[in-house]
Specification:
Oligomer: homodimer
Helix content of chain A: 55-70%
Number of helices of chain A: 6
Largest interface: A-B, 48 and 48 residues
CATH topology of chain A: Arc Repressor Mutant, subunit A
Strand content of chain A: 5-15%
Low-confidence stretches of chain A: none
Distance between the termini of chain A: 24 Å
CATH class of chain A: Mainly Alpha
CATH architecture of chain A: Orthogonal Bundle
Radius of gyration of chain A: 17 Å
Chain lengths: 136, 136
DNA sequence: TATTGTTATACTCTATAACTATA
DNA sequence: TATAGTTATAGAGTATAACAATA
């Protein structure tokens, strides 16, 4: 199972594009889009990155216009990171690109295989959630 | 489907360990173990890396004792890269670690979900192969 | 000339340690 | 003192360009 997943994801990652966000960057964007603004410390913890690493990533993303920083009104030490419209566009474009490639591969399979994968998706999603929860 | 795969694999990658080979490094080790010695150029092509990148990766792996280099008797320009016993040990340990973690997650699912995933594995494997073939 | 591999160089990403500002 | 964030610095990983050796 493991080599299967590894092959798939390394392939997806190699889909080149002008604005190819790193996996962590995309994960941060998706999280901000889904859950709203978050502090650097929380992003670092949730994405299993160091706090300085997250500061730097957020810095690069801000420079690229994907997020913006604002002081946390509730805590003078804190910073709230928020996704921008351009950040949301990147999420949309990246997902569209990946989905298109996946669909293309998917179409090379026969009906039986496609049905088996579709039937397993909810279970795989729960497996992924178990993995995520285990981290926290 | 994509976020599911992304979550799973990023999680697996975060399993920390004293000797955590990079994904490409592990892929090279597995290939050498499965198919025998290979030239740098072929490894670069097969793993979608640049030739200098593969030279450097093989250099690091050789330094770590995972592979050895030997002149290609059939071509004075070529170098044959071969996995060592220690390299095979790393494959075994890494897979064991990953499989153990996957099993642990797997056990949190109910019987229906587990069956669905098991049933989809051959299809997922063909999907991964389609991805790999598309590269070549 | 073409191919194999390496070296030179640079850039991205990430980490640990040291520091600043606020609680 | 503890926490939030940043800066300083270093290392892994990978790329393109230039080079050396062999076909």
């Amino acid at each position: 199972m493991l080599p299967v997943l590894g092959q798939l994801v390394r392939f997806l990652r190699q889909i080149d594009s002008p604005d190819n966000p790193s996996p962590v960057s995309l994960a941060v964007l998706r999280r901000l889009d889904r859950d709203g603004p978050a502090r650097v410390t929380d992003l670092a913890r949730l994405e299993r990155a160091s706090q300085p690493g997250m500061t730097q990533l957020v810095g690069r993303m801000e420079k690229a216009g994907l997020v913006r920083r604002a002081p946390d009104p509730a805590d003078g030490r804190g910073v709230l990171v928020e996704v921008t419209g351009e950040g949301r566009d990147v999420i949309t474009r990246t997902h569209a690109r990946y989905e298109a490639t996946l669909d293309e591969l998917f179409d090379t399979l026969d009906e039986t295989d496609r049905a088996a994968i579709v039937a397993a998706l909810p279970a795989l999603e729960r497996l992924a959630r178990a993995a995520t929860d285990r981290q926290a």
